[in-house]
Amino acid sequence: MPYTLIDGKAVATQIKQEIAGEVNQILAQGGKRPHLAAILVGHDGGSETYVASKVRTCDEVGFKSTLIRYESDVTEEELLHKVEELNADADIDGFIVQLPLPKHISEQKVIEAIDYRKDVDGFHPINAGRMSIGLPCFVSATPAGILELLKRYNIPTSGKHCVVLGRSNIVGKPMANLMIQKNDPGDCTVTVCHSRTKDIKKYCLEADIIIAALGSPGFLKADMVKEGAVVIDVGTTRVPSAQTQSGFKLKGDVEFDEVAPKCSFITPVPGGVGPMTIISLMQNTLLAGKKANEIINIK
Fold it and tell me: What are the structural domains of the chain?
């Protein structure tokens, strides 16, 4: 069957224009320009790329951005002190601490130190808790981006069986939580599968929607997907490649070429979920900025 390719890049471009329009409106009404800060520790290649992309996108939508860099030997105490400073800085609407952090720093401690009203990554336990019971909050960027794609492609979710592959706190768990809620997109029957699930194939074959977030390249094969399924691929693993200049390419959790012909909708890697993750962070920052302008109130 012919499938529809879900173009995350195109949707992200559209949302960028919408955000830029809102920023212009806020400024025209005498409001404050939204301000996002990012803390980057060390020189991890993936983190460098992500943060550079976030700073660039801030520029494109009209946000102010601040990048704070530390070497990987920064102490936990120093980092926590900087978090406190950003919490207290009235000009900064939202900020992120780019993960992963060096081993000697407790990521959980850092996440919990962030004022949840500025936690635009949506990782703070208060935001995670509010999300799980359907209260206004900052939803973590990747799940929020996936919901946006389902919405903009008018993919029906109500009453569908959604299988989430992976149980991470950043994607798997929040995704399952969002898909089960009385919302559109949402209202699904949700099954979460992970590395200890017996006979994953059986669950996948029953799924109307599969969201693959395992970090296992090419895991989902054609014989695991029923005709007409919707497949969302969250995986982005760097694998060696002789075809590219850099010597590697990004590969998703889905064996795209063999799975796509069976699908009604499918996301590519790259260009599917990835661009939506950064744009969701921008949407959260806009929300945080509006709160500062008292247009919206997250209590």
Answer: 30-115 (3.40.50.10860), 141-275 (3.40.50.720)
